[in-house]
Amino acid sequence: MSQHRSKLALLLWAATPDRPELCATPFIYATAAAALDCEVEIHFSGCATRLLVTGEAAQLFAAPGSEKSIYLFMREAANLGVRFIGCAMALQANTREGETYIPEYAATASATDYVLRSLDPDWATLVF
Questions:
Q1: Would you say residue 1 lies in a domain?
Q2: pLDDT interval class at 3 (50, 70, 90)
């Protein structure tokens, strides 16, 4: 019988507000993994950290005419226990004073934290 990993870390760097057509997919994969009882983290880096800003993802849609915002995809994942983690450097570079984060935002981490996940045999990783 094959051994499978029960932990998944996703890195978002190309799925950014300026490319909303790329933004739903990582949350669909995270939701699927969480539904399979995996521990799931999404690490937001670069401009993807803008998705953690209140109101940003709520105004984005993956396809023209879609009625489901990117934020709704994010909430579905979070409701199954997916943790949203922002890169400290990227948050500093991509957010402005006075902006707030969505309630689903769980923690701040560093690039090293994601690299450690990728080196840990208990964790699988995906990059979006």
A1: no
A2: low
User: In terms of residues, how long is the chain?
Assistant: 128
How many angstroms separate the CA atoms of 69 and 61, rounded? 5
Range of the domain at 44: 7-127
Q: What is the DSSP string of 97-118?
A: TT--B-TTEEEEE-HHHHHHHH
Kind of pairing between the strands at 83-87 and 123-127: unpaired
Quick one: which H or E segment has residue 11? strand 7-12
Distance of alpha carbon 61 from alpha carbon 20, whole angstroms: 6
Listed in sequence order, the DSSP H helices in the chain are 24-35, 70-79, 88-94, 111-119
How do residues 73-120 score in pLDDT, each as one tens digit? 999 999 999 999 999 999 999 999 999 999 999 999 999 999 999 999
Q: Is residue 2 part of a domain?
A: no
8 forms bridges with which residues in the sheet?
Answer: 40, 124
CA dist 126 and 32 (Å) reads 13
Q: Give, in order, the Cα–Cα distances in Å from 66 to each of 17, 60, 70.
A: 16, 10, 10
At 118, the amino acid letter reads: S
